[in-house]
Records
---
Amino acid sequence: MKKIGLRFWLILCSVLPALLVALLLGSYFNHKQQQESALHLRERAANIALSLAISSQELLQQQQLQTIKLLLEQAHRLNSPLVISISLFNAKGDLLLTSNTQHDLSAEAWHQNTAKPTHLSYLDQQQHLLVYQPLLKTNPLRDIEPGYLLLQFEQQQLLLEQKIGFLHSSLLVALALFLALCLAFYLIQKLQPEIHRIKKQMQQLMDGQYRVRAYPLGIRELDQLQTGIMQLADRLAQFEQDMQQNIEQVTSDLQQSMEQLEIQNIQLDFAKRKALEDNRQKSDFLAKMSHELRTPLNAVIGFTRQLLKTPLSHHQSDYLHTIQKSANSLLNLVNDVLDFSRLEEGRMSINPEPFSLRDTLNDATELLAANAFDKQLELVLIVDPECPDDVIADPARLNQVLMNIAGNAIKFTEHGSVVIRVTATTLNEEQTLIHISVKDTGRGINKEKQARLFDGISPIEQNDQQTGSGLGLLISKRLVNAMQGNIGFESSPGEGSTFWFTIKCQRHQLTVAEPLPLELLEQKTVLYFEPQQYSREATLQLLKSWGMHVTVCATKAQLQQAISQNAHYAIGLLGRAVAINQVNEIISLVQRLKTHCQHMYLLVNTLSPNLREALLSSGANACLPKPAHMRKLALTLAQPYHQPFLEQIAPAKPSLYPLKVLTVDDNEANLKLINTLLRERVQQLDSARDGAEAWQKTTQHVYDIIFMDINMPVMDGISACQRIRQSSLNEHTPIIAVTAHAMDGERARLISLGFSEFLTKPLDEKMLHYTLQEFCQLQKNPQQVPDPHLTTIPLIDWPAALQRAAGKPELAQEMLLLLIKSLPQSDKQIRQAITDNDQQVLLHALHKLHGACCYTGVPRLKNLLEALETQLKKGAHIKLLEPELYELDDVIQMLLEADTSMPEELLQASNITVAQA
């Protein structure tokens, strides 16, 4: 804003009041003068009109028109030039006489439109004043209406006088303004020197000259201002002196402090270098120690796995599994420490490469399934159909981050589900942002832990039973940041958590994954039954993306309705949560649906080969673990449309197993039934009629498995189970609860109390057989003493090969020869990957060879490849897999030297089967 000077203010304060006063007074007097002039003109016009009206009235009555005309002309001359014309009109408005014949007012429009006047009236025009004067009546009752006079007066003189008055007023205003300006300039000339002196004093203060000279001023206020300036100058001089002293003191102190800081900086520099060196040595030590620890762990884990392949007792197998589990936990901890040390040193590299996103995600989810099954959790992978599959990123690091986050979700979730969702956002033509979220229904994370969740190792609460290195999320965060992504979570205590992370990927133009036989599945009708919501959503989305017509059912009522509406389906897909006590129910359901479905498949939440084998015996074509691996599911569903299956041979009659079993029940009939069923399966059988007697027997004998009733006198089954677990010879023996109470949640409650499994009454032979297979180390031929050379898996299983070739010997032999022909090239790739220490190349080579084994009868090679592939996907180092890799090399060499001709008896049997068909 522009500031206004004192000169302007003085002029304004002097001129503005004078101007306002002059304008008001001039306007007032000018207005009064104009009013008086107009009033004077009207009074004069009224006098002339009245006198003429009186004179004309008498003469008009006497009909002396000539005299009236002379009178009007005489009045016109006497008042000229004020009067322009005087006209006499009769009562009808007709002109009788006029003093100025050149101005005939009767023809004017304003006159014709004007009403007849009844009294003296005026009509103002721009230049003239018209006066209407009616003639007077001498006898109002007798005389008719008289006429009237119209006088036209000139107003030019009046206007001139008004202009002269306005000019006088303007001159008066100008004079007032002039006098005000003179006064203002006088005041300015008076104040300007004093103000200049004060400005000069202020400038001296601003320049640091505090000895200011005093000037005599003629104005009291300015004298007071000058006195204040002089006092201010004295104070500033005193402040400057004090400040100079303080500055000198502070400068001296600062110089000393700078010298001390310089010394401290040198010391800090030495300390920093020492800390960096110590940190480097610590990282080197961690890396070396991790390597040194992995070397003996390699032997422990490798030879433990080798030892588990030999015939062992129940306790020996239990001890070896404990050793293997502890060694794997220690190996995971060592891997976390090694990754952390690499991250600190900046040696954790990101190696982008083309890969199949869906295969990688399905492989990772498949590895997580075992832990989810142990806790009866629903594990689901849902990939958006719009998400690209062929991308360029680091699949190993992506798999590591997903395993860390999803593994934590499973670890801290006791019941419910863990859902992995994958979506993609297109950034441009070449780049895609992959978004992966893991939602669980666990206990959630409190606000105190949320702030430091990604900081690494954090203290574990006393009531927290979960353990771990605490480095997984820290490593995941750094890996995600290295892949140009972000990581975060949302959690509420008691409501679960949702962890998410994003990575930036390049799109790959070529297809990396092996093609799926989806053309064989198009337009196939599918009857899909799945009670679990998220599993149903994921599998349904997958089946529809393959072009299949799916009828989905969530309840048995919907299933019954679907069967009644369509009695035949090409494929039946049954998804169920499996426990031993539910096997018979699932088998019954499979056999019921098989009459309506050409091919029947199971999706179950178990990896137990015994349970899956039992379910396959019901007539199902295949049994896959949940969540269904996309590739395995597609290949399994499409397999019947390559070649028809060979009907399975009926299983042989079961023999007695070398097991010692204890049965406990207070009911004589129930005890007799279970003993009768078990005597057909096991060699030794003991019985007890209450929990106390059972506990007494377990303190004297070692049993392979115990079947325990719950409701019993003296000591119930729960108390007996807890006593056996605490103090007996059977602390680790499987104890199976047997009860008629099949309420929801009963199984989970009993397992939490120490039981290994839960069976409902009434029992049957199949249920007991499945239980023995699941919890006991059963041999294929229980009557014989197992021999390591006799019980090994066969190198070539011709019956299995014949089954996969739809009973065609030529096709089975041809497929085996194709596999053996590809072995040298595969062996070369595997050896080169081991030499280069490249886990990804090795995993790809093993996966490719594993896929080729699925259609031939080489179970030993297939199982070995499956174990190696699983360990590599879990992140196991190549050096830790040396025993299995050596064994793989031996198996390949044995196959190259093996006899590939089919036995004559199998060849004849297959020909007979084909002929009968």
---
Amino acid sequence: MGQGQATILLVVCAAMWSFAGTWIKLVDFHPIIINSSRCVFAALTLFIYFKIKKDKIAVNKGTILGGLIMASVMTVTVAALSLTTAANAIILQYMSPVYVLIISAIFFHQKVRGKDVLVVIFSILGVTLFFIDKVAAGSLLGNVLGICGGILFGISFLYNNRTKQNPLHIVFWGCVFSALIGIPFYFLYPPHITALGAVAVVMMGSVHLGVPYILYGLAIQRCSALNASVATMIEPILTPIWVFLFVGEAPGKYALAGAILVMLVISLYSISNARAAQKAAQE
């Protein structure tokens, strides 16, 4: 597989991930039940892939810890998407590079550059705009969970970057733990299952999580960091568009302004870092 094909695969992954908000908005389940049920099908999809590839799923402290972190990311993200607008939730998670930067500076004593400080300042300004809009208590909680989801996603990235475990094995265990977390909630908040809800859950698990993660695992090692950064920007752009077209949900004007600012800042920052890494590798 060449770099061009790998980049196309990443674009396909981002496009498939972008439907998460739409599917979640169409399912009238408790958020944790939504995440639990979709992860059953995601884990099954990954399990079939491992069987076909004859890849033995690793069971050790590294994959279990990574799986627990991943499960927390998935659970909090779905809760955020359920409680606030899809645009708010996805952009707040898209800020994960900023959270990685802050965590790395505080806990790993990573050197902070001028552009790092600027990206944090402008990102915080953008996020502040999310909370200016008049929102209900549930939407406010969704915004807070969106930030928490981004922080957890950043922690997950740092963990995967420092572990020698297979990332797909970590995702698999994340799906398994997410499915298990939801079991008590099926009894506390019995879901009203409809044909649309059933289809949405299966699609979320297989098409939104399982297949894209497999494609991502195949493509990411054959794609430059710059191409990967640009390709995956499609997700935060498409997510609110799909939700608006299929559900009719639109973010507030201040939230929209904040989303544009955050996406612009993070996109430029990611491209800048990828170019710097590419240049350093060539020297």
---
Amino acid sequence: MTRTRCTFVYDGLPIEADAGQLLPDVLDAQGIALPHVCYHPSLGPLQTCDTCWVEIDGELVRGCTVAARDGLVVAARGAQAAAAREEGMDRLLAKHELYCTLCENNTGDCTLHNSFADMDIAIQRYRFERKPYDKDESSPFYTYDPDQCILCGRCVEACQNVEVNETLSIDYQSEHPRVLWDGGRPIDESSCVHCGHCVTVCPCNALMEKTMQPDAGPLTAMPQSLKRPLIDLVKDLENTIGAPPITAVSKMDMHWRQPEIRRTKTVCTYCGVGCAFEMWTRDRHILKVQPVVDAPANGISTCIKGRFAWDFVNSDKRLTTPLVRENGAFREASWDEALDLVARRLLAIRNEHGPDSIGFIGSSKASNEEAYLTQKIARLVIGTNSVDNSSRYCQNPATKGLFRTVGYGGDAGSIRDIESAALVVLVGSNLAENHPVIASRVKAAKKLRGQKLIVADVRRHEMARRADLFLRPNSGSDTVWALAIARYIFDHGLEDREFLARHVNKVEEFRASLAPFTLDFAEEVTGIPQAQLVEAAEMIARAETVCLLWAMGVTQHSHGSDISTALSNLLLVTGNYGKPGTGGYPMRGHNNVQGASDFGCLKNMYPGYEKVEEPGNREKWAKAWGVAPEALSDHVGLDNYTMVLGAGEGKVRAMFIIGEETAVSDSHASHTQDAFRKLDFMVVQDIVMSRTAEFADVVLPAAPSVEKEGTFTNTERRIQRFYRVLEPLGDSRPDWEILTDLARRMGHDWGYTHPSQIMDEVAGIADMFAGVSYERLEGWKSLQWPVAKDGTDTPLLYTDGFHTEDGKATFHPLEWKPPEEAPDAEYDLLLDNGRLLEHFQSTNQTGPGGRIDSQVPAWFVEVGSDLAAERGIEDGTWLRVTSRRDSVEVRAVVTDRVQGRTLYMPIHHVKPGMNQLTGPHHDPDVDTPAYKETAVRIEVLPRPKGEPALPYNNYRYGQRTPNGGTDAGAKWARPDYVEPPATLAHPERM
């Protein structure tokens, strides 16, 4: 976007800026101090703090509302403006007790402290008045202190219009206003999802992380019995000597603290959004996660996991030394012993049984560089292409659908494109829980800019409740409604004819293939009324731009590749590729599941998606690695699914698994575990003693992302650097160091001393990453692949054609194939399953510490209220859920999120849990298990109910209070409010 520059005058100084840029941002960039407390660049002008007054043409104006333009003249030094600003600050201090030297928030980022210090106010004019409310400490993650709250409304604006959880409000008309959760509930009994937005934007210590309390400063940890009298003494002293000496001490304290607190940029280790933020630490204590405006994917947004779920880093469950199995039990070993044993056994098995007798599973939570080394050991050292990652369990069908139609196996654009689309279509994606920061962008676009939303899902989750149109198809039938909509669009002349003629192959062949997909047929198969199908078709066809997002509700079916293909076909019909605000977006589940595939942890692809069967690629990689082409395998290897099958059949004799809980995550878990028991040798490299590690012969202690350096690639193909926050715990090591050392012991001395060298090697070979370097990724910079050699990246794909031989997309005709497993008379229900907002996978990361567990402590199964009434089921009723494989016993949660003969079960908590029930059926195109196709029956067990399985204080029971955000007008409308510099009788109330 082209920006127009302008010049204006501020206190006689000419200043150049972007036209329309707000005054606080312009002055901050110039290093010019204009006090402002309620303004935040991510929130805009709230106009509640009254500390930024300036004069324009002799009239007082709040500076946060002033936009740069040619000819503008701003005066801030005049007596009237200065008096108004000081009055505004005095009013804030009437609501906030300044005791900065004893405050945990005096770390350099307290907006209120810094503004007060810059103003050099002689003495506090209004006496601080305590409010008639207690500090809210109900949340496990943060506190709210009304006595420190200045009622700026930043938190309300962030909650209502950035996160759009719509929990917070301020009733400015009450006698003593305060921030309210659900209109007045305790934090932990409200709809608060603990995303931390409110804490991030709070300009003082009213909202603060519990991990900051009380150890953030040298004097903050003193007991309250000493702290309170000391505060009173200082406040009395301030009344005699004035504020400046006290402020000077607090400024010194701030500067004393800062060298002790390290602020390190890192990238989240949970979902695929790729949130980046600073992590604040003192020694090994993680004080807090602090989002920043410059983070490319998330800005100031976070979720409960990214903000607060880091207790695992210092957990006593961490592995800190290698373990070797001896006489059926593990014993500690040195690194030399463990790695020598691994090298010796793997080489022996390769030599005796061949390279393909060994399988490697790389980690979707480890770095790109570590994924690269995993496949390099497999291909170069062992000589097998049997290497895979957890994308096999979730995203390979989406990638297949994109490869079939448009050519690249990744999101078509960026999160910004999703935000800017006229219409967003969510299919099989519980976006608000699985990718909450992207969900907040969609919710904000809908609320603030009128974006339209269609949701197709078997569950009525939050995004479905917010949708303009909610489609509830029968499970696994998405191919049918997508193709029926495509036919409707063709039949009614609503297709993008110019786009199809210029950019797409097989148009007529595809159109002919749609003949069976009538609205009658679609309604019969999907259960969606024809009127809704027509409404969806009209919305999609007539929207100026469409982004279509899908996730495991699509891909974890026996024909997930076909569903993904049908969705991409639909986008092509309407011309929704290659321009801003369009495209297909398969939401990646793990933080680096995209990168693990990009960097070669796939059975059929070298890094950069270069096919292993093509002789030219084989020669290229062999030359780069310094070996003859014959040293590299020329055939596709085994994937996760076929490795386990091979282990059960005795064909795979050894496996090396890095950072994956395969014993729990694989479908038909009992079969997987039986297969592991048959292996001759198994190595697991992880940060905890996982269920998978229990089957290993050698366990190698790895380091999590905060204890190493590297890069991750998020769902929008964005490559970002993360930096070492802490030293590795105990004798654990980063995965790349372990793999480099292991390769050396197997005769390949690569000599890497830093991950940047690994990235340089990849960039020198794989065309997709030609311009990627650590220098170009420094700090908050990022690159979205493909990246040209000069560093030019590609935020939006297909603007110059599609990634195919002729530059055109290709329609892929499909036939309707029903699910491989469906309910019948004996197993009469369908068990849907998926993630929860609070937890991640097997809880190896979210479980330690107990704080996340307090929100969802127990496993459960959701039962629709209609089915519950039919079968006498209540909240907490114990049920036996039985599939064609096994049974589990779990308590019920009665809800309207599911209905009819569909149940829903989280995939977390119990191990192996959900996958005791799932079966071996899978997508034949990519071997992804059909987790979502599990037929079950239920039996009510005669047991006392006990506590509810989903505690009633959980946010899902909350009652949100939507509003337009911070309303300064409501404050100004109070009868006792007057604009500064006039004084007030009760400044503490507004």
